[in-house]
């Protein structure tokens, strides 16, 4: 790599960093502005918007509602996605490529198309718009990501692990829970955090499948329709901090588990 190429790559890298983090920095900064309007200059600073968010019963209720959906979606996605990965991973059979493509299809369909299709499907099977419909839609979307992550981890597992378990008298189920599942733990943690963030952050499916109780992204959208205010920045900043903490915890856990394995 020549010197000019290195300089060009460095410029592109830092331009991307600025493009990525400057909007986040502005969002966080505006959450401390002592005014109802977004913009510069900032004449004084305050924590009143964060206090208002913490004391807002609607925001707290919606936050709990969104977390409930995210946790339920994550559990279902991990169970179904792991089963799909174990079924498709080591086995070779006719039509495997087609089944794999169908399993990954929800991840590549545009969100708006997926949301409309899921809304029609939910109506056909008499599922009312609301929490269960949103969980169904998020699970369908998240399962392919779990399957891909778990399949990647399975491909690195030595066959001697399963063979040793079989030699010791373990059947397929015991070998899976005693040998394979512990080996998959780093992948499951990573996939679980990713699914939780996808579900918590999803707007399109929650908007089409939701009932009268909004999720947090839908609530923020509703607040934006009446004008931008520092309260929205405060909500977004709190969510950003929680997401960063969750991501750092997941990354450390996966490193520790990978070293152990």
Keywords:
single chain, 261 residues, mainly alpha, MetI-like fold, 78% helix, globular
Brief account:
The chain has 261 residues and is mostly helical.
So, CATH architecture?
Orthogonal Bundle
Strand segment tally:
0
Count of alpha and pi helical runs: 12
Our estimate of the beta-strand percent is under 5%
CATH class: Mainly Alpha
CATH superfamily: MetI-like
User: Which descriptor suits the 3D outline?
Assistant: globular
Q: Remind me, CATH topology?
A: MetI-like fold
Mean pLDDT: 83
The major pleated sheet works out as: none
Q: Which class best fits the helix and strand makeup?
A: mainly alpha
Provide the helix percentage.
Answer: over 70%
Gyration radius, in Å: 23 Å
How many independent structural domains?
1
Could you tell me how far the N terminus lies from the C terminus, measured between alpha carbons in angstroms?
36 Å
**Spans with pLDDT under 50 lasting ≥5 residues?**
none
String of helices and strands? HHHHHHHHHHHH
Organism: Nitratireductor aquibiodomus RA22
Keywords: Cell membrane, Membrane, Transmembrane, Transmembrane helix, Transport
Membrane topology: Multi-pass membrane protein
Protein name: ABC transporter permease
Q: What do these coordinates show?
A:
By secondary structure, this protein is an all-alpha fold. The protein has a single domain (57-260), classed as MetI-like fold, CATH 1.10.3720.10. It contains twelve helices and no strands. The protein has helices at 3-30, 48-55, 57-88, 96-108, 111-124, 131-154, 159-167, 172-183, 185-201, 204-209, 216-225, 230-260. The longest helix has 32 residues, at 57-88. The radius of gyration is 23 Å and the shape is globular. The two termini are 36 Å apart.
């Amino acid at each position: 790599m020549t010197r000019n190429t290195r300089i060009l790559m460095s410029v592109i890298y830092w331009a991307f960093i600025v493009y990525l983090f400057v909007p986040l920095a502005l969002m966080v900064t505006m959450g401390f502005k002592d005014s109802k309007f977004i913009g510069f200059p900032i004449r004084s600073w305050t924590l009143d918007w964060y206090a208002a968010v913490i004391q807002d019963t609607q925001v707290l209720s919606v936050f709990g509602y969104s977390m409930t959906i995210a946790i339920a979606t994550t559990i279902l996605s991990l169970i179904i996605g792991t089963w799909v990965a174990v079924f498709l991973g080591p086995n070779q059979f006719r039509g495997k490529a087609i089944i794999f493509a169908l399993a990954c299809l929800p991840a590549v369909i545009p969100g708006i198309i997926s949301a409309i299709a899921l809304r029609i499907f939910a109506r056909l099977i008499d599922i009312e718009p609301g929490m269960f419909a949103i969980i169904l839609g998020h699970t369908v979307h998240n399962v392919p990501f779990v399957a891909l992550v778990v399949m990647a981890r399975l491909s690195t597992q030595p066959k001697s692990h399963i063979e040793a378990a079989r030699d010791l008298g373990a059947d397929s189920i015991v070998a899976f829970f005693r040998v394979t599942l512990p080996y998959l733990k780093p992948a499951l943690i990573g996939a679980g955090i990713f699914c939780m963030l996808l579900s918590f952050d999803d707007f399109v499916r929650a908007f089409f499948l939701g009932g009268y109780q909004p999720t947090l992204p839908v609530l923020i959208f509703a607040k934006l329709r009446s004008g931008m205010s520092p309260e929205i920045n405060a909500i977004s900043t709190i969510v950003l901090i929680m997401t960063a903490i969750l991501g750092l915890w997941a990354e450390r856990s996966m490193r520790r588990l990978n070293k152990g394995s």
